[in-house]
Give the backbone structure.
Amino acid sequence: MALFRTRSAAVYGIEAHLIDVEVDMYSGTSTRDMVTVGMPDTAVKESRERIKSALMNSGFGFPNKPVTINLAPANVRKEGAGFDLPMAMGIIGAMGGAAGRASDSFLITGELSLDGSIRAVRGVLSMAVCARKQGIPNVVVPSENAAEAAVVEGVNVYGVKTLAEAVQVLIQPESRLPLQPIATPPSHTPEFDFGDVRGQASAKRAMEVAAAGGHNLLLVGPPGSGKTMLARRLPGILPPLSFGEALETTQVHSVAGALPNDCGLLRQRPFRAPHHSVSDAGLIGGGIGTARPGEVSLAHNGVLFLDELPEFQRSVLEQLRQPLEEGSVTLARSMMTLSFPASFMLVAAMNPCPCGFYGDQTRECRCTGAIIQRYLTKISGPLLDRIDLHIEVPAVPHKELRGDQTGATSAEIRERVARTRLIQEKRGYPNAKIPSGRLRQICPLDDAGERTLEMAIRKLGLSARAHDRLLKVARTIADLGGSEAIQGKHMAEAVGYRSLDRVYWK
Ligand SMILES: Nc1ncnc2c1ncn2[C@@H]1O[C@H](COP(=O)(O)OP(=O)(O)OP(=O)(O)O)[C@@H](O)[C@H]1O
Ligand SMILES: [Mg+2]
């Protein structure tokens, strides 16, 4: 046997595509003992040395004839070290090793060490999804990635630690039991509870509204008033991830190489809090080669928390506009465009001024008007427009902090949120994502609601986008109140959440 084929996959965005690894060995001489074609990147080209050592050290030997390896289809770039294992197994097959028999029914990925042991790779969950779609019944993956692959039903997952073990699976799959999926039920006990937050009733109410409709949120207040504390508690009142959401979120983390070892499906909504020094690529995604997901995608189906919002570079913040609008990011690469899902709730927090005490009742602000304005204008109008709820988080009075009065617990709030989400599910959209064409129909106003809206638009001078977003927030408040029509009081509360930008951003 001189020509042999194994199958592997390459991941673009969070989608894996089947790649055939064709190995040809021919008699004759060549100055190179192994050539890889089919748009391999540097890491793939370097695999020659790893494969050679791994084969020698595992006792398989290396052919004394020239080897050509083609990664097909040839028109897409192949990145990373995950082709090591399928290439090495292809060579063993081409040498006539018994691994030959059934290689078409296996999708193989893994990075080789020189001693033949196998290292984890990124994107294995997506590859397992690809195998199922393509009708390939078995996958052979690094043992550290086996749990994520086993999430996919209908494929047999074999986690392997060495090249020799992988060959053994191919020769005698019946000698091993495929890995069973680890069933992790969604957890209902959040790490942080709203029951710990004293006072701040109106901020807590706003967080409930945000969670109920999936709205973005800005918290403004002096240092130490509890903004970070409140934000951390948001994931705990959101409904549990559905299987489909969990799968997509886990895929993103797998592609980013951010999944812990032996981790199956992620069942908690992600909470990402990137530091304000984060780069464009760190926040939005990118980097060299086929691009990695950024924080906006790691927060997919969860919460992206930007603490100290004005400290972020303005250019970085402006890049949030696309994901906030579309729920995904598109990255242009030299040969293709990639897209990653990025549907998250944005929670931003900031002080009202550099010293933090502008508008505070208890301490005097030391900033001049010009300094405050410069600070606030770091946040552009279009970005503010995309944040539906702006709320003030004042310092908690000492009496409240020391008292034993705490408000609702996360479990209580979560139940109300879940009930409201159910109403939205029947309509087909979470309130924050109602398409503008359906707004009129889904958000009917009674007379008082209509009047309140009209007045607010006139007084606050809101943009058309802000108007639409106002309606959606009012829809959520009415849903929480169990009302079909949006009444005056619902609209008034929604307007209240948009007044802050007129206080500060005059
Ligand atoms: N409402 C509250 N109830 C109970 N504890 C609180 C409350 N607010 C603040 N704290 C306590 O103060 C600490 C600091 O709060 P937190 O970090 O959330 O403030 P912050 O508003 O984010 O401040 P900064 O503007 O400096 O970032 C919390 O970890 C918590 O222990
Ligand atoms: Mg803080």
The chain has a mean pLDDT of 88.
